[in-house]
Design brief:
Pfam families: FtsK_SpoIIIE (PF01580). Keywords: ATP-binding, Membrane, Nucleotide-binding, Transmembrane, Transmembrane helix. GO terms for molecular function: ATP binding; DNA binding. This is DNA segregation ATPase FtsK/SpoIIIE, S-DNA-T family. The chain is elongated. A twelve-stranded mixed sheet has the order 8-7-16-15-14-9-13-12-10-11-17-18. A four-stranded antiparallel sheet has the order 3-4-6-5. It folds into two domains: about 130 residues, Threonyl-tRNA Synthetase, Chain A, domain 2 (2-Layer Sandwich); about 260 residues, P-loop containing nucleotide triphosphate hydrolases (Rossmann fold, 3-Layer(aba) Sandwich). Helix content is about 40%, strand content about 20%. It is of the alpha/beta class. The structure holds adenosine-5'-triphosphate. Adenosine-5'-triphosphate (ATP) binds next to helix 7.
């Protein structure tokens, strides 16, 4: 409160010009007519603007006057019958042209009701030149479980401003999650509001592709309802998740998508399960090489893979930039269940150093020459996994701490919606991935193979030859 130069009373600022406004006497009938005309004009604007309410209201009013209750009830029944027939007859077109547009109009009305308050409380309203400016709600489109709201930003705003307050917006609009992605134009942001959770239900094992498509292996479902296809060519894959987060389901989903390649010899899986074969043991026949107890055998497997990678790189030098798998030179995928056991917790220092050296060669040189790594780990810190950055594809399942999200998925990914630390324990197999060409992380759920399904798959497609350095009976 100011303590000097204060006097009581209203302060009147001196006017720049003093103008005496003219006094005109208007007859009452003229004023009344003007007000009536203005009210009629406003009514016409409202009637036209909310045509989707006024049109049906007028139509039903007319039906009622003409035929009594039978009129409106008959028309409602007719619409219900036609809609049901359309919905059952051709569901995709009914949803696209019938149901979603109607729902979108309703949802737009809901969002508009809260828009002003939501923008002000989320600090997205901007004060400029002594007035408040709000982002403009342009359009709402609905699809299964998701509303896409097109928003024109205020000058100076960027999509990340919306991403930062996404959680606040989700609570305000009563949806599960909000994601902000850049729109088609630089001044537009798209808010994706997720109403329900399409990933709440378990994803059953997916059909095994006849020939594996190494750029798009079907492994799960995305939250926008599409299937999630993992790219293996040209990359190395790291799966990070707390205990019980479903790392095993990622591994088995990938193995299943490659199963026909294993049978045809186009793919060789080499399995390393330092936890004594707890995870990979059930499907051991899927692996051409398998090590579970002997750390020296595991180290030798990794060194052998690194040697293959170096030899192939030497052969392909100057000829091609991507190796094409053949039965003579198959795609090799090293599946490692708990990588930290090899890189951090191993007490034999010499062996640990050999493993680290071979792994870094494999990770850096293998991806172009068809020698890949699919590794799972619980703790993504640098001390545990020094070469985290050599895995271009990283999958974040449920994580223990918010700070781990950006370590796994990249800087700013938690702000953009990858809430790995908020994945509930009752949703194992759910995680976030960064999909090529999309700056916002995608929530996915990996398919789940029960133990019997893993055994069946191994029985149908498996070709195991060597366990811990020893040939299996009947295998050669
Ligand atoms: N994709 C999934 N869908 C449904 N349930 C799943 C899925 N993945 C895993 N589960 C369930 O969660 C349990 C734990 O999964 P899993 O053993 O794969 O986790 P993990 O991350 O490998 O744990 P740990 O690090 O302790 O080995 C499984 O026994 C299974 O019941």
């Amino acid at each position: 409160m100011p303590l000097v130069n204060v006097i009581r009373g209203d302060r009147l600022d001196s006017a720049p010009i003093n103008v005496r406004t003219p006094f005109i006497r208007i007859p009452l009938w003229l004023a009344l007519s003007w007000w009536t005309l203005k009210a009629l004009g406003r009514l016409a604007v409202v009637l036209v603007r909310f045509w989707y309410v006024t049109g049906p209201a007028v139509f039903f009013g007319w039906l009622y006057l003409r035929w009594g209750w039978a009129g409106p009830v008959g028309v409602v029944a007719l619409v219900a019958v036609v809609a049901s027939a359309w919905g059952f007859g051709h569901r995709p077109s009914f949803l696209r042209f019938g149901w979603w547009p109607v729902l979108a109009r309703f949802r737009r009305w809901l969002y508009r009701r809260n828009w002003h308050a939501a923008m002000v409380t989320a600090k997205l309203a901007v004060s400029f030149d002594s007035h408040t400016v709000l982002p403009v709600l342009r359009k709402v489109q609905c699809t299964a479980g998701v509303d896409v709201v097109t928003v024109r930003m205020v000058t100076g705003q960027i999509p990340d401003d919306f991403a930062k307050v996404a959680e606040r917006l989700a609570h305000t609009f009563g949806v599960r999650q909000v994601k902000a992605v850049p729109g088609a134009r630089p001044d537009v942001v798209l808010l994706r509001l997720f109403r329900g959770d399409p990933l709440a239900k378990l994803v059953r094992p997916l059909p095994v592709p006849a020939v594996p498509e190494f750029t798009a292996l079907p492994v799960g479902k995305r939250e926008d309802g599409d299937g999630y296809d993992l790219r293996l060519f040209g990359t190395q894959v790291l799966v990070v998740g707390a205990t019980g987060s479903g790392k095993g389901s990622v591994i088995w989903s990938v193995v299943r998508s490659l199963a026909n390649g294993v049978t045809s010899g186009l793919v060789q899986l080499w399995g390393l399960d330092p936890k004594g074969g707890m995870e990979l043991g059930m499907g051991a026949p899927m692996f051409a090489r398998f090590a579970r107890k002997d750390y020296t055998a595991m180290c030798e497997l990794i060194e052998e893979a690194a040697t293959v990678a170096k030899e192939r790189a030497g052969k392909l030098y100057g000829r091609t930039r991507q190796h094409t798998p053949t039965p003579d030179e198959p795609l090799i995928v090293l599946v490692i269940d708990e990588l930290a056991n090899l890189t951090a917790y191993l007490t034999d220092r010499q062996l640990k150093d050999r493993i680290k050296a071979a792994l870094s060669i494999l990770l850096s040189q293998g991806r172009a020459v068809g020698v890949h790594v699919l590794a799972a780990i619980q703790d993504p810190r640098k001390e545990v996994l020094p070469f985290r950055d050599l895995f271009p594809t990283r999958i974040g399942l449920r994580l223990a701490e918010a700070a781990q999200v950006d370590l796994v998925l990249g800087e700013g990914m938690r702000d953009r919606g990858a809430l790995c630390d908020r994945i509930p324990q009752n949703l194992p197999g759910v995680g976030f991935v960064v999909i090529d060409g999309d700056p916002t992380p995608m929530r996915v759920r990996f398919s789940y193979l029960a133990d019997d399904e893993i055994r069946d798959m191994a029985h149908t497609y498996g070709r195991l030859r060597v366990i811990d350095g020893e040939f299996l009976d009947g295998a050669a």
